[in-house]
Structure formats: C-alpha cells, structure tokens
Amino acid sequence: MVRRMPAERLREHTVPVAAARRRRLRADQARQLADLLRHQILAARFPRGVLPLEDRIGADYRVSRNTVRQALDLLRAEGLVERQPGVGTVVVCEKYPHALDRLQGLAETLHEHGPVTNEVRTAGPVPAPAPVAGRLGVPEHSDVLYIERLRRLGGLPLSLDLTYVPMDVGAGLLDCDLENTDVFRLLETLTGQPLGHADITLEAVNADAHSAAVLQAPRGAALMMLDRLTHLSDGRPVDLEFIRFRGDRITMSGLLHRTA
Amino acid sequence: MVRRMPAERLREHTVPVAAARRRRLRADQARQLADLLRHQILAARFPRGVLPLEDRIGADYRVSRNTVRQALDLLRAEGLVERQPGVGTVVVCEKYPHALDRLQGLAETLHEHGPVTNEVRTAGPVPAPAPVAGRLGVPEHSDVLYIERLRRLGGLPLSLDLTYVPMDVGAGLLDCDLENTDVFRLLETLTGQPLGHADITLEAVNADAHSAAVLQAPRGAALMMLDRLTHLSDGRPVDLEFIRFRGDRITMSGLLHRTA
C-alpha cells in the first residue's frame, strides 16, 4: 500500500512534500519517455543501435537532462540498453517477436533470428492427471507423453516448455528429432493433418528460484507464461503446453479487431 | 549463469550431487504440478475455492507429499493461494481475464467482475514527440492529448495507462467522464464511428520502484506491458497507449488459428 500523509502533516511539511512531488513528477516523466524509447528500441529504429546523446534526447522530447538519465536508467535496469564508454547508450536488447496472429511453433516464428535448439530434459509416458486428461480428451490416468524442453535461440535460454500429448500421437514423437524440430511440425507430420486452432492464456509472473536457474535468469525475473491447448484441424486436442518465456527475450505481437 | 561443476569435482562429490539431482527432480515435479493446479485455480475449478488436502493431491497426481508442498509454496509465492488454519489451502487469486480475441476497453472486457474506475493523474495537451507523431500520423511537435490514468477494479490498482490521442479528437475527451468511462467508448462517441483494429505488443517486465509504488505492488513485481495503437474503422490511428498491468491481477486469453 502507498502510504498517504494526513492533511495536517501535509500542511506542516510543505517543503519536503513539494520536493516529493517534484520527484514524483520526474519519475512519471521518466516512465513516459522510457516507454517511447522502448518502442524505438524494439522496432530497431536507432541507427547502428546507438541512442542519441542525452542533450539531444532532452531537446527532442522537451524534458530535462535528469529526466533523460532516469529514463535511461529504467531501460538499463531492464537490460534493453547499456552505457558504453566512448560510444554512448547502445541497444543490447535480445528480445524477439513472437507472432500472436497465427498459431506457430517457436522455430517457425523466429526463423529470421536464428535456429531454435531444444534441450530435452525429460520425455516419456506419464499417467494423465485429471486436468490433463480432461483437456486432451483421454481417459484419466491413461498414459500421455510428457516432454520437458529448455529452448534456446542463439545459444541463450528462451523458454522452458512442459508438453503433454495423447499417447497414440505421442509415441511417434519419441522417435523424432525433438532437439531441432518444433513439436507443431512433428505433430502435423505424424497425424498427416494440419493443426487447427489453440486456446491460449498469457500471464506475467515472477520466476521462482528453480525456474530462474534453469532459464539462467535472475531470481524473480519477469516471465511471460503461456498456457496453450492446441487442436488438430479436425478439432481434436493434441498438445497441451505450459511455457515460461524469459520476459527479457520475447515480445508477443498481434492485431486485434473491434468486431469478431 | 548457472554454474556447472567440473567433471573431477562431480566424481569426488557423488553424494551431494545425487542429493542435488533429487532436489532438482522434485523442483521440476513441483513446477509441473503447480502449472496444473494454476490452471484449475484460474478456471475456478475448486469447489468453494478450497484445494484438496495435500495427501489427496499427492494421490491424484502421483507425487510425494513434499512435492505437493513445494508446488503449493510456488502458488503461494505468486499470491494465488493461501493457507488458512482449519480450512486448508484456499484460492485468494484476484486475477481477471482480458480478452485477446476482440479489441475491447477494460471496463467492457471486465464488466462481469465489477466496475473499473480511473484515477486521472494527468490530462492535457503536450507537443507530440517524433515517435508519437509518426504513429498517430500528426505533425511532429503539434499538440496531442496526453492522459495518464491509474485504473482500478474493485478498488485495487489494475493498470497504469499512458495515452496519446490526436488533438482534434482529444480536445473533446477533456469534457468527458474519464473517471468512469473507457477511452474506447468515448472515442467512438466523439468520432461517430466504431474503432477498427489495433496493433498490440505484449511484454513481461519487472516493475521499477516508482511504477510498483503507483500500482501498490512489490518492487520488481512482474507486469504485463501492453503497447497498443488503435485505429478507427476508417483506418486512422487515434489512440496510442502504453499500459502496465499488474501481473497478479490479469490474464490475457484468446484463440489462435494455424492459417490466417
């Protein structure tokens, strides 16, 4: 809870309160500026990845140099920029765009940015717990294939994926090249039909200690968590996934329409 | 970086390494279980919001009691459940679903969950910086309306929204009830045409100290950050927003299709 000063105290402490208000205002302005610069950074709008000088940013955005510094501090804390001696503030962001418009596997959606490799941490049959069985439409405690993969782009961890597949399809996956191929592509090959649609839910969560260690991210790092139930084109649910993306390595972009 | 033990040390320390491996395995199992329970929690599947007893969860999911405890610890750390003496583990989640399928204002999409109120922190004309002018299609440094709102659901902060609107439309917004009405609805009334589409980008970020204080969330809390450029049905960009949602209060759900 933000604590509020009672009115009497406010009157007694005009000077500190006015100072606090100035600080608040600068923090608000810094956030506002940081959001604008963040968009430019993600859209790769700065030539050679070098931001303009602080004075220039201040003039362009009509804010004080202190506000510019505070905004750059925010972007630095997020790992989007770094200060390099003799060069200035440079973009160091390794954030990649994941399409929200179309159902695509990671290697498909990121193919321009390099190959996705998968470290298979676990792959084998498990008895389906009730919520998995229910969502995949298989009998409770019947075997389903469980796969756990740490996925990397450019060698760096991108996401930790927990996947459940009905055993009649899943058995075939065990003979496939899970290290180098999206499960989506393999499912289409194995079933001989394209995927149809997926129900997705996205959340922002703080990484627990163990997930952070696996993803080589700081404890508490913001993660983009994706719960996704994917169906074949005939409507059959075929792939239930729980995916933790490193928040500093992924953006999700799409197009929304006002009418359905 | 996760530190790896060199091979020599691995051989010398078989017992601690085996213990570490057991811990890793339990942590992996706990995450796996937590993800399944998390879905049940968000879908409000537990009668009266009370989770089954630990032994029962262990039997249902075929894991040890220690794994169940560790999974519940993960959910507790996220603020999804609490342990209540004499009752057990209860759902305390105040997470609401925001539709990703249709372009909707916050009050529209959450109307079943209660009224959204808006604390207008700032509202007035500002000279449009280049990236705002470019995206809204107005001359650089011409005035645009800037609005900053802290949005609440059920009295609790849900999001901090920074909004830019071209001045010809924005001037009318200043006379409207911004406290109780979505900007989307007001824009449709003022322009006499429905909204068309929006380009969105979602990110998971850690809250900086000041944003955390405004949102009454812990410093570093995971936020869902939304960059959204909304167009009228005639295609004109009319509303540029930078929105920080508290990660513990919002989920984003939608449907993806394999073919466009």
Instruction: Please give the CATH class of the largest domain in chain A.
Output: Alpha Beta
Structural class of chain A: alpha+beta
What is the number of domains of chain A? Answer: 2
CATH topology of the largest domain in chain A: Chorismate lyase
Largest sheet of chain A: 6 strands, antiparallel
Assembly form of the protein: homodimer
Distance between the termini of chain A: 39 Å
Query: In CATH terms, what is the architecture of the largest domain in chain A?
Result: 3-Layer(aba) Sandwich
The greatest inter-chain interface is formed by: A-B, 78 and 78 residues
Mean pLDDT of chain A, to the nearest integer, reads 90
CATH homology superfamily of the largest domain in chain A: Chorismate lyase-like
Number of strands of chain A: 10
Q: Would you kindly provide a written description of the structure presented here, covering whatever features stand out?
A:
Two copies of one chain form a homodimer. With 260 residues, chain A is of the alpha+beta class. Chain A has two domains: 7-91, Winged helix-like DNA-binding domain superfamily/Winged helix DNA-binding domain (Arc Repressor Mutant, subunit A); 96-253, Chorismate lyase-like (Chorismate lyase, 3-Layer(aba) Sandwich). In chain A, 34% of the residues lie in helices and 33% in strands. The first copy, chain A, contains nine helices and ten strands. In chain A, the strands form three sheets. A six-stranded antiparallel β-sheet of chain A has the order 4-5-6-9-8-7. A two-stranded antiparallel ribbon of chain A has the order 1-2. A two-stranded parallel sheet of chain A has the order 3-10. Chain A starts with 6 loop residues before the first helix and ends with a strand.
